């Protein structure tokens, strides 16, 4: 949620050259586990229903693109090394950009530079 506005600006600026998708994964900063003091109040998901409910809080912030959820086995997060968050640009099934792990390696500005080259 920290850089959601920057992400939304990417969607606005590059929606004509890229399809955007958010995959909601395991909650990295769950309030019943390890949390930032000023973060959203979401507990660790015990089942898919809880993960869907948590993802709804993101949908309500209107990320301007589809939001899907990872399986409870966390297969997507595992395969993409996405915990707690990570940005990717894919083209034709190939990884064109693999961002650093968030929150410190989460850089919408780097994605912007990659997408500008694709325009």
Automatic annotation (TrEMBL):
GO MF assignments: thyroxine 5'-deiodinase activity
Keywords: Oxidoreductase, Selenocysteine, Thyroid hormones biosynthesis
Statement: the UniProt record of this protein carries the keyword Oxidoreductase: yes
Top-level taxon in the UniProt lineage: Eukaryota
Reaction equation(s) it catalyzes: 3,3',5'-triiodo-L-thyronine sulfate + iodide + A + H(+) = L-thyroxine sulfate + AH2; 3'-iodothyronamine + iodide + A + H(+) = 3',5'-diiodothyronamine + AH2; 3,3'-diiodothyronamine + iodide + A + H(+) = 3,3',5'-triiodothyronamine + AH2; 3,3'-diiodo-L-thyronine sulfate + iodide + A + H(+) = 3,3',5'-triiodo-L-thyronine sulfate + AH2
InterPro entries per UniProt: Iodothyronine_deiodinase
GO biological process, one term: hormone biosynthetic process
Stretches that traverse the bilayer: none
Function in brief: Responsible for the deiodination of T4 (3,5,3',5'-tetraiodothyronine).
Homology family: Belongs to the iodothyronine deiodinase family.
Protein name, as recorded: Iodothyronine deiodinase
Organism: Astyanax mexicanus (Blind cave fish)
Lineage: Eukaryota, Metazoa, Chordata, Craniata, Vertebrata
